[in-house]
Amino acid sequence: MAPNQLVQTRIGGALKAEAPAMLAAMGLPVSDAARSLSEGGL
What we know:
By secondary structure, this protein is an all-alpha fold. It has one domain. It has helices at residues 13-25, 30-38.
């Protein structure tokens, strides 16, 4: 199924800055992590 939903949220600046590196350490880009969370993963 093609992605067709927009998800927006507000997060703190520190988390926004740290999240990509933390996810990359697990081999996940931010988009894949968000998709996995929306599907009930992680």
